[in-house]
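One such given next:

>
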Amino acid sequence: MNRYGNHGKRGRRGTLLALTLAGGLLLTGCGGTDDGSHGAKDSAADSRGGSAPMPAPDRPRGEGEQRYDGGTTAGEGETGDRGETGKNGDSREIAPDPDYLSTFALDVDTASYGYARRTLAEGRLPDPSTVRPEEFVNSFRQDYDRPDGDGFSVTVDGARTDDEDWSLVRVGLATRSAEQREERPPAALTFVIDISGSMGEPGRLDLAQEALGTMTDRLRDDDSVALVAFSDEAETVLPMTRLGDHRGRVHDAIDSLEPADSTNLGAGVETGYETAVEGRREGVTNRVVLVSDALANTGDTDADTILERVSTERREHGITLFGVGVGSDYGDALMERLADKGDGHTTYVSDTEDAREVFCEQLPRHIELTARDAKAQVAFDPETVAEFRLVGYDNRQVADEDFRDDRVDGGEVGPGHTVTALYAVRTRPGADGHLATATVRWLDPDSRAPHEESGDVEAETLDGSVWDAGRGLRVTATAAYFADALRSPSGGGDWLPGAPGLAELTERADVLADRTEDADVRELAEAIEEANRLA
């Protein structure tokens, strides 16, 4: 899965682009940015330039994570294309030959940003391991052009950073508008609710019950709801029930939930999928929605083991998992892994406003899917690009050769959504002409027929400063730099090019919030200010 390098003549440019163009997001109603709603409420640079690779952040690299110099970190016990693998998966020899492709599965999780805001509001800096830059970036609405029908539009733009020759390049993907909600298919939603002792704290089970009650009144008569509760064991409190005249029965089931004992999350997920399959309806959208603090302490606590037990239901019936995180103590890593393995995504709710937005607005509005197994591949031009790095998406990497292998998992995406990927790119001196081509590939939700769409960007469009760019790119850069600072032990952000310190970023975010008059951007500015105070 090589990504970087310095090879290629002009003759190869045409070949690379031809290959990219010729062959080639999850119940996303609650995760990706939606028409006017953001994320959880709707996801030492070499400043001197030259050929030195930009180092990765000061933290362990995940399996297959992209490196600036073109190598990948092999998983434990694996061997790379060239060279041997050490005891801990470290490459002992030269990294694989580099190339200019970057491939990843679409992902619009936003839980990391929501949880970071909650942690900062409580006067604590978030654990760097819980900070995922792509989820910060995808927590804000974007104004990308939208396609007329199913599928995606592709927008690619960028601007210069304060580091010489380094730019931020943004790849934006958007699905059609979600305005015509009455045309969506009916939904069959199985809610798996954590009622363990830890969920008895304010802002956990009570928050979920209030939001679910309001959601029940807003779903359509032809929608169905099931309810599974779990603590040390799991129980189907309400089998799949078509709402119609039965809303009172659903309310009674929600109100009956009370905190119990330990957290057997594995039993909850397994029973949830069994209930979803038993109540599965043809021609409807079937989802499992897990509401938990993900602090599993009984039974299976490993995401792979938990999801393997329900793999048949996931694969044969296409039932995806949507994780809703709650609580100041939150098992972020487990919930994210569950969502990734369950073809879904996560969000995080910290208060009543968040919960109502997720359950009452996003969930009913975006039950329909417009794309399955969506992946993106970006081909950088070796004549204009010296090196690059995809910001985040560490757990969503896909081997370049698997981009058009439709057996390889991608992301599930619904209408009205956007997904943003940000790259740090060092251009060659005097770069002019084609810079990159971004291609998205997806399967039709019904026919499973593959489709692709592409977009290009030219080097000369990167002339302006990122701080003078349009609203969307400035917000994207600010969110990415914020995540960068939180992931750096010193709080200084030492691996994303042009990263300002938190003090400077606070000032820039405050100005941006004033200019946009956007409540979500104001919340971002306040979070950055709090992080600066705590750092």
About this structure: The first helix runs from residue 10 to 23. Confidence is low (pLDDT under 50) at residues 1-98. The first strand starts at residue 33 and ends at 34. The radius of gyration is 23 Å.
